[in-house]
Design brief:
Elements lengths: L5 E8 L3 E3 L1 E2 L13 E10 L7 E7 L7 H15 L13 E9 L8 H12 L3 E9 L7 H13 L3 E2 L2 H8 L5 E5 L8 H8 L11 E7 L7 E4 L5
Length: 230
């Protein structure tokens, strides 16, 4: 067991929101217009008593909900928390361990961009170990889900026309801190990691719910198979 600080975050995407959104009034003819989708990526630091949620929001035209987006926002939040300096910094002081809890969704989370990020965080000296804990299918609500429910109570009762208003409305929710992100925040982690690591063979991680990168085995991922615990 590695000694030192063990950091743990839960990440998830909220159900898509919309602009404009008429939650408090009858919109009339505008009800039939196609609204702009707004994505919300939540990160909850469960290592604190308050368990605040940072909600990264962006319209569908500024980004998707794929592996590059998840990897980019994970790095952005680790920098915000002060747990890493930056990917290009040589001043990272290795912390003991990071555990990231997330849904077992291939398109968003269990993909080569996100998985290889664990090896990258170890190699830049940010952590001695990085774990991904993928929730089993049919799991109950995680910490982010509970915070999203609180967030939606205010959102569903409000009329929202702009991103600024979206931030104001979401900011009214207790322990929720909305942050608007845009195209410049999303990096091509797939291309970067292709220069450093091989791509995982198709189906390699399908049965794994715990995936770990260790500084004692740089450039490798340790998979825990749910069928036999190996």
């Amino acid at each position: 067991i590695l000694g030192g600080r063990h950091d743990c975050i839960v990440v998830d995407y909220c159900q898509n929101m919309e602009l404009p959104f008429f939650g408090g009034t009858q919109p009339g003819d505008t009800y039939y217009f196609s609204p702009l989708g707004v994505y919300c990526f939540g990160v909850c630091n469960v290592g604190t008593k308050d368990k605040d949620l940072t909600a990264y929001i962006y319209p569908e035209g500024d980004g998707k909900k794929g592996g590059n987006n998840v990897a980019s926002l994970l790095i952005k939040d680790l920098e915000r928390l002060g747990w890493i300096q930056s990917l290009g910094s040589s001043n990272n002081t290795p912390r003991a361990r990071l555990t990231i809890i997330l849904d077992n969704c291939g398109g968003q989370n269990k993909n080569r961009m996100v998985l290889r990020l664990a090896m990258l965080l170890v190699e830049i000296g940010a952590y001695k170990a990085v774990d991904y804990c993928f929730l089993v299918a049919g799991h109950t609500k995680n910490t982010c889900d509970r915070m999203f429910n609180s967030l939606k109570v205010v959102y569903r009762r409000s009329d929202v026309y702009t991103m600024d208003q979206m931030v104001t409305v979401l900011g009214k929710c207790a322990k929720v801190y909305p942050v608007v992100v845009g195209p410049s925040d999303f990096k091509d982690f797939d291309a970067l990691e292709d220069r450093l690591y091989k791509r995982l063979a198709a189906g390699t991680t399908n049965r794994s719910h715990m995936i770990t990168a260790l500084d004692s085995h740089k450039g490798q991922l340790r998979l825990s198979d749910t069928s036999n615990g190996s």
